[in-house]
Amino acid sequence: MAARQLDRKTVTGLVAEAAAAPSMHNAQPWRFRYLTTEAVLLLRADPERAMPRSDPDDRALHIGCGAALFNLRVAAAHANLRPEDRLLPEPQDPLLLAAVQLAGEAGRRRDEDLARLHPAIRERHTSRHPFADKDLPENVRATLQDAAEREGAVLFFPGLWHAETVLDLIRDAESRDASDPETSEDLARWTRLGPEADTAVDGVPEYAFGPRRRDGKAPVRDFAGRRRVADRGATTFEHSPHLALLSTAGDGPADWLRAGQALERVLLEATLAGLATSLTSHALEDRALRLLTRDPASGTGQVHMVLRLGYGPRGPATPRRPVRDVLEIV
To answer: The pTM is what?
Structure first.
């Protein structure tokens, strides 16, 4: 497969779409370096955007970067490229998370399974609003499970008892944070209030907080905490939220990157299916609680994300850093 020279505009566009991926508190913990001669795009972790309190092992950081990697693959396929990625290509450099060969081959068709997801990259937003108490069709569930499996992960829809357990664990995590202000340091760092919200290029701005939960069981993190946010009301959320747990068999950096790619593939498929989505890792930030979220029947697998799926508003777009701040071309 021959390397194809890409111009700056093409590379910039690919990275802009990669960077539309979700990440914990919208910290956007990635950097890209394009090697022109080799037509290789390197994805690196940005340790300055790590969260030592809530993500001490950098698991969530890797998941966010994995989601960006999947968006890059989709954008490349849409541009008639054949992305070939290698995870953790240099063990002696743990911040180098992936190398993506952006190659083309004459007469070979693009990967339509990836390319068809492209419209959803810009349509996908995290929604912290109420969803309708409406069942998810079985064919939609099957599509989302297949999306996770394609990336080496498992998407599990817990039964009623298991879902209640997960909700209890999330409430336990919320109570823990309320009683220990130090655990909220990362959240405070990455929320944007008042005039700062209008100019932010990262973090979660107040216009994306959604309303306060007056009633209901939906697991929606309150980014405001005890801080006042103007014109923010309270409302009732769904009492029977549709949850899904994303897991992998292993629990190392490569597994986390695969989980991030699986997560984004599921989210893009959900967006194309007309679903609104939100994510919570609240109960997963404490290892003891995280182990309790696993499938009680098998007791195996490592849960990396709790997804909330449903029908409702998709939520506003959150800000993104300028591509010039995250991309170097050499």
So the answer is: 0.96
Condensed to tens digits (0 to 9), the pLDDT of residues 189-223 reads 999 999 999 999 999 999 999 999 999 999 999 89
What string of H, E and C letters represents the secondary structure of the chain?
Answer: CEECCCCHHHHHHHHHHHCCCCCHHHCCCEEEEEECCCCEEEEEECHHHCCCCCCCCCHHHHHHHHHHHHHHHHHHHHCCCEEEEEECCCCCCCCEEEEEEEEECCCCCCCHHHHCCHHHHHHCCECCCCCCCCCCCHHHHHHHHHHHHHCCCEEECCCHHHHHHHHHHHHHHHHHHHHCHHHHHHHHHCEECCHHHHHCCCCEEHHHCCCEEEECCCCCCCCCCCCCCCCCCEEECCCCCEEEEEEECCCCHHHHHHHHHHHHHHHHHHHHCCCEEEEECHHHCCHHHHHHCCCCCCCCCEEEEEEEEECCCCCCCCCCCCHHHHEEEC
- What digits encode the pLDDT tens for the residues 237-254? 999 999 999 999 999 999
